Task: inverse folding
């Protein structure tokens, strides 16, 4: 029942381990997000981004009565659609609404991929990526490598930029990097539209008051 207080707050379906680690770290920072503490579960879809886009309904159906809200979070790259971010989100949300979630579900499509959330102006970003010279120097290096257009707020290919930056720093690439970034970087510094939409959604669902 909708009013059953025994239900958990949130179920999150993600496309891969990187996104899962980001979501887990973010949701353990309720004060930074401006929400109340949550009971939540996070699960990966076996078919990754395309599975989240086309089969989220089947994956989430068992949780309609056990969880108050559901999120589906995946990358636009790899999801199998040529639509833009908002079109893909609407497609998934319409299916979830028709399957009984109503206004209790939301799709978040990251354009182009989760690495877009890495590039915020925070001293923790170069530190975690293995750079000791600071954010400005890291950005300037990426500009000289033609991985970051000067007029752009972030790299056009954020995954490649992150890969090259860590390779230059001889830093090991692993999913733990995403956990550390999401656990340390100021949440106010990320201007990515998908991140802002995620934050606004959970703030509306789980206000502090």
Result:
């Amino acid at each position: 029942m909708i009013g059953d207080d025994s239900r958990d707050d949130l179920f999150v379906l993600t496309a891969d381990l990187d996104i899962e680690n980001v979501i887990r770290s973010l949701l353990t920072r309720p004060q930074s997000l401006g929400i109340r503490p949550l009971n939540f579960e996070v699960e990966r879809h076996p078919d990754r981004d395309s599975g989240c886009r086309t089969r989220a309904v089947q994956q989430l159906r068992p949780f309609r009565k056990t969880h108050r809200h559901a999120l589906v979070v995946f990358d636009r790259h790899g999801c199998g659609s040529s639509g833009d971010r908002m079109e893909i989100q609407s497609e998934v949300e319409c299916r979830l609404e028709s399957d009984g979630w109503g206004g209790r579900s939301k799709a978040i499509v990251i354009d182009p991929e989760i690495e877009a959330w890495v590039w915020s102006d925070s001293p923790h970003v170069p530190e975690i990526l293995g750079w000791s010279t600071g954010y400005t120097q890291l950005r300037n290096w990426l500009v000289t490598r033609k991985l970051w257009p000067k007029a752009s707020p972030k790299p056009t290919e954020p995954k490649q930029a992150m890969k090259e930056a860590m390779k230059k720093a001889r830093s090991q690439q692993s999913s733990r990097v995403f956990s550390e970034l999401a656990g340390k970087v100021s949440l106010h510094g990320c201007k990515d539209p998908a991140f802002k939409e995620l934050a606004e959604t959970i703030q509306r669902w789980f206000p502090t008051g």
